[in-house]
Amino acid sequence: MSADDLYPPLPYGDWVETRDTLHLFLQIIGKVRMKAHPKLNHWWHVTLYLDTRGLTTGRIPYQGRSFQIDYDMVDHVVHVTTNDGGQKAFAVTGPDGTAKTVAQFYNALFEALQTLDIDVVIVAKPYENKSTTPFPNDHAKRTYDGTAVTQFWRALCAIASVFETFRSRFVGKQTPVQLYWHSFDLVTTRFSGKAAPLEGGTASDKEAYSHEVISFGFWPGDDAFPHAAFYAYAYPEPAGLNTVALQPTSAQWVDRNGALAVLTYEAMRAESDPQTAILSFLQSVYDGAAEKADWDKPSFEHQFLKPIAM
Predict the structure, then answer these.
(1) What's the average model confidence in pLDDT over 192-197?
(2) Would you say the pTM of this structure is higher than 0.90?
(3) Are strands 65-72 and 49-50 parallel, antiparallel or unpaired?
(4) Nearest C-alpha neighbor of 68 from the set 21, 107, 29, 38
(5) Considering its fold, how many domains does the chain have in total?
(6) Residue 21 pLDDT > 60, yes or no?
(7) What's the CA gap between 147 and 277, in Å, rounded?
(8) Pairing mode of beta strands 185-195, 178-180
(9) Are residues 207 and 240 part of one domain?
(10) 126 and 8, same structural domain?
């Protein structure tokens, strides 16, 4: 498989309207998971996960049963299934190929849940999004380019695989590779184990940032930074973080509410070995940030065991 197959082009301007539609659809699904799943530390109960067809909530416990919502980003169908054999599906586009409105998507999802005797009530409005219209009232015409959505999913799959390799090097507390639907980024975060209560911010911010972290992610860009990119940062930010040498050399430090290491997706695609470029970016940020923050790096290194003959 070629690098272009693994990491297809994602020019922001070419799919921004589709991106905005997909983001709102995923916020609706994510809010169902957030409301129904038992709460986990650092908001890990709200996230979505990659699977072999798209994004999934994973299994959600519900009144002695369980259910799951899968967003198929190949055929562009949402599947709701339960562990007692129930299933309901709907397409994210109409018979003529046009996108559902946000209101139509919202109604279709909750009709599917109700058909399966799942009663979940969410705050039915976007969270920290350019759209502020409540989901049931958003009847605006939407753009949905299925090819662009599939390409985005393919890129996420390849990137998630690299993130998983990076995770394997660390034995401390760390997150799964997970997608935060509110900010629309794929993330994995490492913890030092030291408490670092956040001063100020919202209650959700304080829950997310209760301990020292070095966090790594990928996001498709936004209107303020219209480029798909990898990023990384440390909290609390150690002195001199933005002086850490980054790899590959196309990566750079920017000031975005603090020091943020950035490697654009296009710069990664231009490298002769994109996977190595991503890994070197992640590792260079971790090595530098952990040293600046005085983490006990040797204790977090995974000493791989030799294969055992069975």
Answers:
(1) 90
(2) yes
(3) unpaired
(4) 29
(5) 2
(6) yes
(7) 26
(8) antiparallel
(9) yes
(10) yes
User: Residues of the chain with pLDDT > 90: what percent?
Assistant: 86
Residue the block writes with tokens 């169902």: 32
What are the structure tokens assigned to 162, written together?
Answer: 């690299």
Residue range(s) defining the domain that contains residue 209: 161-299
35-44, 67-76, 159-168, 227-236, range with the lowest pLDDT: 35-44
Q: Where are the beta strands (DSSP E) in 45-175?
A: 49-50, 54-56, 60-62, 65-72, 77-82, 87-91
173 and 113 part of one domain? no
Whether 285 maps to a domain, the answer reads yes
Lowest mean pLDDT among 140-149, 175-184, 204-213, 220-229: 204-213
Q: What mean pLDDT is predicted for residues 284-305?
A: 91
Residues in the chain: 310
Among 137, 152, 183, the domain-final residue is: 137
Classify residue 238: in a domain, yes or no. Answer: yes
The CA angle 42-32-206, to the nearest 5 degrees, is 20
pLDDT tens-digit readout, 55-94:
999 999 999 999 999 999 999 999 999 999 999 999 999 8
Q: Output DSSP code: residue 99.
A: B
Q: Strand, coil or helix: what is 128?
A: coil
In-domain check, residue 234: yes
**Please, are residues 221 and 183 in contact by the beta-carbon 8 Å criterion?**
no
Residue 142 lies in a domain: no
Number of Cβ atoms within 10 Å of the Cβ of 84:
11
* 72 Cβ contact partners less than 8 Å away, ≥ 6 residues apart: 53, 54, 78, 79
Q: What is the pLDDT of residue 226?
A: 96
Whether residues 180 and 273 share a domain: the answer is: yes
- Once rounded to an integer, what is the mean pLDDT over residues 198-209? 77
- In 3-state terms, what secondary structure has residue 161? helix
Residues 89 and 172 reside in one and the same domain = no
Cα–Cα distance, 112 to 274 (Å, whole number): 41
- Within 10 A of 268 (CB to CB), how many other CB atoms are there? 26
d(CA 108, CA 78): 9
Beta bridge partners, 260, equal: 254
- Tell whether 132 and 169 lie within a shared domain: no
